[in-house]
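Quick one:
INPUT:
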């Protein structure tokens, strides 16, 4: 029975990922490579295109802060809130400013994999706070904030089930 539940969860995650735009999918794959240390992102994702390597470098630097987010604060007290939310919001803002994430769903999908299920309750707050910053263009701000559903913003509880599907870049084989 547990295997069937895991299989259906994996299929749901695959479907969710397939629903993201192609640029969101590539950004999520690259971000997971960087955040989870899955190889050399410069080799996999770098190019001669202006700013591409700089964006990867800034993501490497920003994602170093994720290591400090292993201790998730208690949801019923304010203890540890700043130590967790400040770096999470900073990294989130940097990712959103790259304009590769178009919705809360894509953000949540990525950060659940970077931080684990324990971070789920904190993701709507970090997303809203980062999306509302003046560093995010006003038109982007509007799109991002409107992508957060009322259900996600006001969820009474969150699943503690860890994600099953971690997308990776697949190289096309030569013909």
């Amino acid at each position: 029975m547990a295997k069937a539940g895991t299989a259906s969860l994996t299929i749901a995650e695959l479907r969710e990922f397939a629903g993201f735009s192609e640029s969101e999918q590539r950004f999520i794959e690259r971000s997971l490579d960087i955040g989870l240390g899955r190889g050399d992102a410069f080799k996999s994702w770098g190019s001669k295109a202006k700013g591409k390597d700089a964006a990867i470098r800034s993501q490497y630097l920003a994602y170093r802060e994720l290591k400090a987010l292993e201790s998730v604060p208690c949801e019923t007290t304010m203890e540890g809130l700043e130590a967790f939310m400040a770096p999470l919001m900073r990294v989130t803002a940097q990712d959103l400013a790259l304009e590769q994430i178009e919705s809360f769903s894509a953000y949540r999908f990525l950060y659940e994999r970077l931080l684990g299920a324990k971070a789920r309750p904190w993701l709507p707050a970090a997303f809203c706070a980062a999306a509302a910053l003046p560093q995010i263009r006003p038109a982007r701000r509007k799109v991002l904030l409107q992508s957060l559903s009322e259900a996600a913003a006001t969820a009474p509880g969150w699943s503690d089930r860890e994600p099953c599907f971690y997308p990776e870049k697949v190289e096309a084989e030569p013909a």
